[in-house]
Amino acid sequence: MDHAYLEMCHSCESKVVSHYISQPGAEPPSLSLCDDCVQTHTPAFARDFTEDLSAEGCRFCGGKAAASDSLAHVIDGAGAEEKFLCRSCALEYHRIGLRYFESPLDPDLKADERLREIMAQIDTDMRRWVIQRDN
C-alpha cells in the first residue's frame, strides 16, 4: 500500500485516519481521526454512534456496518431506530434511491405516502441486489 496517499490523524499526526466526523456549526467543522484518538477527541454523541456502528451489522446483508441509513429517519421521524449499512450496500442503496427520487412525485398521493412507497421499492431492490451480489 502506498502510504503517500494516506491521510494522517489530525490529532496525533502519527496514525492513519479511520474515522471522518462531521460537526456542523463547530470549529473545526470536521475531524479526521485514528482509532485511538476518536475515543478522546470526539463528542459523546459521535462516540456513541461509532460504538453502535461497530457493534451492528448491515440491515441488508449482515456485513460490517459502515454508515447509518439516513433515509430511515425521513420516513420514521427522529425517533426511528438506527439502521446501518455496509459500504457496498450503502453505495447501491443510494444509487437505487437516487433513481427513484429522479422521477416526479405523483400529485394524487400525499408526500409521506409516496416516500413510504419509494422506501419499500428501495428495500425490495436492495434485497434482490444483495442476493445477486452474494451468489
Automatic annotation (TrEMBL):
**The protein's name:** ClpX-type ZB domain-containing protein
Organism of origin is Luteolibacter arcticus
